[in-house]
DNA sequence: TTATTACTTCGATAGTTATAAAACTAATGA
DNA sequence: TCATTAGTTTTATAACTATCGAAGTAATAA
């Protein structure tokens, strides 16, 4: 295994850890299937989770580069970051 | 989300959990890159982990259907289960 | 300024997990 | 039978994580 592969394993396993939590995977599926951005409050209603829990998961997904965040006034709009998936899990979003 | 997708999410998140542990991901990479089966003892040397820890991880991977196990006398030979990857993460092994 | 909205962070808790040593099991061989 | 080999399970521990309520922050509106 090369040095590059070692760090790729680390990045990949962190991405997998982010996706291993069922509610986070649901968030990705929801964002992937949506034709528009979704706010944290909307996600809270869709997943029947408290806003603080959604915020916690959203932070994890954002920090792993799996989602984009656009802030407009107090509202945060979430969307899936297709580039990251394309780079590390090509084809995954299409198979989801 | 349909009922089928719900259970697919659960299976997928369990697969991701299995792959989110760096040593298990290394085991999959090692098996994927090998042209022959690998024993638990060999894996223990390759990953510098105790045999009990390798056995513990091997069990997780086997139970998720990510590896095959072939027993010959006392020895267990591990290999990657390509069908499971093809079904749930098509293209992943090639991109690994 | 005060209130409201939308989200984040803190704090506490309950549950999960990775690790290895020790004990155990099963197969082979002397 | 006894010893060796290969792997599993048990046990204990230390570390991590998901959850939510409460408190905090920042932007807007009255």
UniProtKB/TrEMBL annotation, chains A, B:
Transmembrane segments: none
InterPro entries the UniProt entry points to: ArsR-like_HTH, HTH_ArsR_DNA-bd_dom, HTH_MetalResp_TranReg, WH-like_DNA-bd_sf, WH_DNA-bd_sf
Recorded coiled-coil stretches: none
Keyword DNA-binding: yes
CDD domains: HTH_ARSR
Assigned keywords, A-Z: DNA-binding, Transcription, Transcription regulation
Key word Transcription regulation present: yes
A Pfam family of this chain: HTH_5
SUPFAM superfamilies: Winged helix' DNA-binding domain
Domain HTH arsR-type as annotated: residue spans: 4-96
PANTHER family linked to this entry: LMO0101 PROTEIN, TRANSCRIPTIONAL REGULATOR, ARSR FAMILY
Name recorded for this polypeptide: ArsR/SmtB family transcription factor
Organism: Companilactobacillus keshanensis
